[in-house]
Design brief:
By secondary structure, the chain is an alpha/beta fold. It is built from twelve helices and eleven strands. The strands form two sheets. Strands 4-3-2-5-8-7-9 form a seven-stranded mixed beta sheet, with helices on both faces. Strands 6-1-11-10 form a four-stranded antiparallel beta sheet. Helix 5 links the parallel strand 2 and strand 3. The protein is globular, with a radius of gyration of 21 Å.
């Protein structure tokens, strides 16, 4: 039985969510306050269970990052890779020859990067016991994403979730006036990447910030949500899903087939030679991820390496400018590179479109619907 767990929203003309009759459509203007977005909580299910307290990430988190950053800088890519102008329409007929022609990379350059990558993998730190604890939800907000996150967080409590929440932003300049106080009243806490990263010059792209929230979060077990990934049922139970208990990492599928360079498996150590066939796996939608940091700390750190040099190298290696360029496929790439067990939700991504009465259909909005990982049938 396929059941909906999350809606991911692609906003085209309106800012809001299509709830397929499950909940009221919320529309937000740029002036909406977090308090307004949370006002519907009182209409939701009554739940007196306490929300677990959230502790501030300890200083050890920043120390861990300093050591990782030093490792990454020592083994940075030996050249920059320009983002390819990948024609999405060619994806359905992509051949390994076509995929091989997007990046300007020699066999010697690939070999040198393979050596740097292997050294990073050998040097990845073990999980720091006692630094992280508990289960919680992490969401990346800030800037234009804060208004969308407000609705998602309001819906989270409306559907009955009692998970503690960390809401991450780049720095305090991204906080809307009074937001953090309002968050605290709902068992949520503001967190800032800049408190752990002294030099933000390497973090120039918003896609790079997702890995920072996962690394720096105080939680040991994380349900990560993009600001526009909205639960339509309480997600608390998925931490007890057999698939998560078995592997410790659950990812959801995206629409797209992979467009990675044939050098990707060679550079990342999955193969001893350049790929001769088109990958058969599905790309992932990283708008929601379930991650046990103790089980997959090294995978998380390796993904951080990919994201740290993402815009200048790894995003272009892994997607070559194809659909989904950014952080999303750095996570399965790291898991495959370390040859560890993880779970891809087997249900295909479903799509629902709606219009605003103008008859323009899909041009008004689209919802991406992801399945509940506790329902793997």
């Amino acid at each position: 039985m396929w059941s909906i767990s999350f809606h991911r929203i692609r906003r085209i003309f309106l800012l809001g969510i299509a709830t397929l009759g499950l909940f009221e459509l919320h529309r937000l203007s740029s002036q909406v306050s977090f308090r307004n977005a949370l006002s519907s909580i009182h209409q939701g299910p009554c739940d007196s269970r306490p929300i677990p307290a959230i502790r501030k990430p300890p200083e050890a988190v920043s120390e861990q990052w300093s050591r990782l950053q030093e490792l990454f800088e020592t083994h940075q890519p030996n050249l920059g890779i320009e983002r390819a102008d990948f024609a999405g329409g060619q994806m359905a007929k992509a051949t390994v020859e076509l995929l091989a022609n997007y990046l300007d990379m020699t066999a010697e350059e690939a070999y040198q990067m393979r050596r740097e990558h292997a050294t990073v993998v050998e040097s990845l730190p073990v999980f720091p016991k006692g630094v992280f604890n508990g289960r919680g939800l992490v969401i990346l907000a800030g800037g234009k994403y804060s208004e969308i996150a407000a609705t998602t967080l309001g819906m989270l409590r409306l559907v009955g979730s009692r998970l503690p929440v960390e809401v991450w932003m780049i720095d305090m300049t991204e906080e809307k006036a009074g937001w953090c106080d309002q968050l605290a009243s709902q068992g949520m806490a503001c967190r800032f990447v800049s408190e752990h990263v002294k030099d933000m010059s390497r973090w120039s792209n918003h896609y790079q910030l997702k890995i920072a929230t996962l690394l720096f979060s105080s939680f040991a077990e994380i349900l990560y949500l993009d600001s526009d990934s909205m639960p339509v049922v309480t997600p608390d139970h998925i931490f007890d899903a057999p698939a998560y208990a078995d592997t410790g990492a659950v990812l959801w599928p995206d629409y797209w087939k992979p467009t990675e360079s044939p050098y990707t498996p060679y550079i990342t150590g999955r193969s001893n030679e350049k790929a001769s066939t088109v990958p058969s796996f599905q790309t992932v939608d990283s708008g929601q991820m379930l991650w046990n940091k103790e089980k997959h700390w090294k995978s998380l750190c390796l993904s951080a390496y990919y994201n740290y040099f993402g815009p200048s190298y790894f995003y272009n290696l892994i997607t070559q400018g194809g659909p989904g360029w950014g952080d999303k496929d750095t996570f399965p790439t790291a898991l495959r590179a370390l040859n560890v067990k993880w779970t891809m939700v087997p249900h295909h991504l479903q799509t629902q479109s709606w219009d605003n009465g103008t008859g323009h259909g899909i041009g008004s909005g689209i919802a991406m619907m992801q399945a509940d990982p506790a329902d793997m049938q």
